[in-house]
Design a protein that fits this description.
Blueprint lengths: L2 E5 L5 H15 L20 H4 L3 E8 L2 E10 L10 E8 L8 H12 L2 E8 L3 H15 L4 E6 L4 E9 L2
Parallel strand pairs: 4-5
Antiparallel strand pairs: 1-2, 2-3, 3-4, 5-7, 6-7
Length: about 160
């Protein structure tokens, strides 16, 4: 299976925006604050990924077909560490899940952005928790920390690790 990860260009913003609709639909199962607007779409803006130099949008293709995206940012959400990397959002379409696509994408992006990482999953999203534990365990040979967080900023699981090239 051919998997390509490409940095999204401004001309690909509409594709990323459309894929984000599927992503937000999936997330709405776990986050009751996610609602559709009166036009039947989710209010998920990807514009900041072309405006902020600490953010990078990536599109995922499988056999040249759009299959997902990863929004990477420098500056961790929970820890506040401005140098820590963070998957602000990570999405693989359901038809490509459990085929190694997500693992491949995560590992390649870890390699592209060496350093410290923070990865988060909603408390109710046990499938994502299982996925990230396996990927991070494999990538770090078990050298990571995991915490359950329940505060005003986050309710869920968080993993921290140092990605050494």
């Amino acid at each position: 299976m051919q998997i390509d990860i490409v940095r999204a260009t401004l001309s690909e913003r509409p594709l990323l925006r459309q894929l984000s609709e599927f992503y937000m639909y999936d997330l709405s199962e776990f986050d009751t604050e996610i609602e559709i607007n009166p036009h039947g779409t989710f209010d998920f803006s990807v514009d900041r990924y072309w405006q902020d130099p600490n953010r990078a949008p990536y599109l995922v293709y499988v056999e040249t077909k759009p299959a997902g995206f990863a929004l990477v940012k420098r500056g961790a959400y929970l820890s506040g560490d401005p140098e820590m990397m963070d998957f602000a959002d990570f999405f693989v379409m359901r038809r490509y899940r459990r085929q190694g696509v997500g693992t491949f994408v995560a590992e390649r992006l870890f390699e592209m952005f060496p350093g410290k990482w923070e990865i988060r999953q909603f408390a109710e999203n046990v499938t994502a928790q299982s996925f990230w534990r396996k990927v991070i365990e494999r990538h770090t040979n078990g050298h990571f920390q995991e915490y359950a967080v329940d505060n005003e900023m986050w309710k869920g699981i968080v993993q921290y690790f140092a990605n050494v090239p």
